[in-house]
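Review form for a predicted model. The reviewer records the input and the model, then writes brief findings.
Reviewer: anonymous (R2)
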Amino acid sequence: MLKANVLPLKYGLLAVTLFSVVILPNHRSIAQSANGNGNNRMTVTSDIQEANSETGVISARGNVRINYPVQELEATSAQAQYFQGERRLVLTGDVDVMQAGNNIQAERVTYFMEEGRFVATPKEQEQVRSTFVIPEGNNNGENGEPDLNLPGME
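Model under review:
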C-alpha cells in the first residue's frame, strides 16, 4: 500500500511553489501547482508521487515528466524532488531538460527557480552535454567582434 502525507489544501492555494498531489497506486500520478489564474502551473507526471507536508518535499519516481510552460521548461528523468521552501527542483537519473531551445543532458540536474540557474553533474567517467541557443548580434560591436568596452572604462 502506498502511503504519503498529502499537503493541506491551504498550501495548494499558494502560487507556483506549492502543489496539490493526487496519489494513485499503479497509475500515472499528476502534481500541479495551483493559483487563481493558473499561469504558473507546473505539471509533474510520474508512476509514483509522494508529498510530505511536514518537510515540504514532493517526490516523483518512475518515468518522470515535467512541464512548466511559464519558464518554457520541459524535463524527463527517473526521479524528481521538489523542495518547496527553497524553490529547488532536483532531477536524477538520465535527466534531459529543455528550456527555450536550450538543452541539458546529465545524470543529475538541480534547478534553482528563484535564480533561474541550473547545476548539472554527470555519471562517473562521463560528461554533461549542453546545447545552447546563442542569439545573433548578442554583445557584438559594429564589425561582429565582441564589444569589450565596459561602462566607465572609456
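Findings: Helices lie at 9-12.
Further findings: The chain has one domain: 9-131.
Recommendation: see findings above.
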